């Protein structure tokens, strides 16, 4: 996980997970709309997942 991805996930979380698939983008987008902090946390968790 690069520093640019971390900064992007803080500024605009759905854009940070754009290459992780449609489901991840949708989940992060909905959480970001519900509140900025849940979207950032979800984006960081998805980016930190070693499986994908």
TrEMBL record:
Keywords: Membrane, Transmembrane, Transmembrane helix. This is YqaE/Pmp3 family membrane protein. GO terms for cellular component: membrane. Its main location: membrane. The chain crosses the membrane at residues 26-47. It is found in: Membrane. It comes from the Bacteria. It holds the Pfam family Pmp3. InterPro entries: PMP3 (IPR000612). Belongs to the UPF0057 (PMP3) family. The lineage of its organism: Bacteria, Pseudomonadati, Bacteroidota, Flavobacteriia, Flavobacteriales.
């Amino acid at each position: 996980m690069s520093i640019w991805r971390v900064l992007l996930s803080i500024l605009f979380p759905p854009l940070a997970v754009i290459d992780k698939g449609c489901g991840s983008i949708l989940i992060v987008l909905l959480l970001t709309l519900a509140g900025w902090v849940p979207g950032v946390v979800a984006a960081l968790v998805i980016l930190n997942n070693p499986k994908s």
